[in-house]
Specification:
- There is one protein chain.
- This protein is mainly β.
- Helices cover 13% and strands 42% of the residues.
- It contains three helices and 15 strands.
- The longest helix has 11 residues, at 25-35.
- The mean pLDDT is 94.
- One of its GO terms (biological process) is DNA alkylation repair.
Length: 194
């Protein structure tokens, strides 16, 4: 297994990047782009409806529910192409995801705002694994209590970012807009525990 780059390892959590975790990631990118049921969704913030600035798809064990920002997702099962990835997570990282929120960023205008993956159904200190497919994008962290404390990195094609421990309690993350960016898919694997 490839040696990771450790970006954070302290009381606030653990963040590791495996820059070339998935070889031949272009083929898996094309598989996801062409075979998943991508949806444009709307959320309500402060009483107003807003189109989510990316396409989404929820995958996971049949019937698995996940909710955030007033949206509820129900999985209908894993596509066949995901079985080897799930086995690899278990064997290499002792992590058994049962769901994945898939995000399709069609251009640099598609984005993800500041947030933490801290929904109650993820448990106390969840592990989140982000597999990046397609174009490289910048990924930012900032501390909840002190927004001047930041980490910035670039997620290359085929990379795997692992966040675990207390990260979601102490840090937020975001994918900012970019003037020029190739299309990108992020597979955010997680384990629903409640």
């Amino acid at each position: 297994m490839q040696t990771p780059v450790t970006l954070l390892d302290d009381d606030s959590g653990l963040v590791k990047l495996y820059p070339e975790w998935l070889r031949n990631s272009e083929a898996f990118y094309q598989y996801c782009r062409q075979n998943l049921d991508w949806q444009s969704r709307t959320i309500r913030l402060f009483g107003k409806a807003h189109v989510i600035p990316r396409l989404e798809c929820w995958l996971g064990d049949p019937g698995l529910r996940y909710g955030y920002s007033g949206q509820e997702y129900v999985a209908s099962g894993w596509p066949e192409g995901f079985k080897s990835l799930l086995d690899r997570f278990q064997s290499q990282h002792d992590f058994a995801p049962n769901g994945a929120l898939m995000n399709y960023y069609r251009s640099g205008a598609d984005t993800m705002g500041w947030h933490a993956d801290d929904e109650p159904e993820l448990g106390l200190n969840p592990t989140i694994a982000i597999l990046s497919l397609g174009g490289a994008r910048d990924f930012h962290f900032r501390q909840h209590k002190d927004h001047s404390q930041k980490l910035k990195l670039r997620l290359p094609e085929g990379s795997l970012l692992l966040m675990s421990g207390a990260v979601q309690h102490h840090w937020q993350h975001a994918l900012p807009k970019r003037a020029q960016a190739r299309p990108r898919i992020s597979c955010t694997f997680r384990r629903i525990v409640a």
